[in-house]
Amino acid sequence: MDTPTALVTGASRGLGRALATALNARGWRLVVDGRDARRLTTAAAGFPHPDRVTAVVGDVADPRHRAALAAAVGPRLDLLVDNASDLGPSPLVPLASLPAEEFERIVAINTVAPLALLQQVLPALRAARGAVLNISSDAAVEAYEGWGGYGASKAALDQLTAVLAVEHPELRIYAVDPGDMRTDMHQAAFPGEDISDRPAPETVVPALLAVIEGTLPSGRYRAADLQPAGAAR
Fold first, then answer.
1. Distance, C-alpha 226 to centroid of its chain
2. Would 230 be classed as within a structural domain?
3. Which residues are annotated as catalytic?
4. Where are the alpha helices (DSSP H) in 46-112?
């Protein structure tokens, strides 16, 4: 059996790093990216099989970077994970105070980039009859003060996911809400607050693997509803 290939964006920290680590431990070849060169290099070197990892430094909002990722993937892609996200200003601000250029940046990373990247790698995904995993948020479906820009971008990503699933029945296309996690981004949403009570990103990985390795139909899911029996939370 050929070694499966996964492209994981935002894999230098948090959930992206945790999922990429698990996939690599299962023998997957990885193409990973991140904006911070030092952090990405450190993460890639620490994966279980670094010889099966291609790290590409850059910003998913940059078309040239997306083209570089597609080139690194090659002719076959079994899994695309759109994990890279932008929260917006920290501390969070009300929508009426969110600068238009900040909102444009949030949407460029959280909504436009996942679609544009899929367009780049679609032939490779079709060749593998692969899967797409878009990381969503409960902010996409709930109204939280201060989370309007981020939530709107994730709501749009959910809709893109749903339409792509209808248009590409040959693929499995998912949006998954991982829930609250103890990550740098979540800390940025609550600067100065203790978020140590939130679960670590690694606790969400079993639910994501259940989606990736299972036979669920395309759609939107909550990680909390997908945790395998006995998985730590």
1. 17
2. no
3. 150
4. 63-73, 100-107
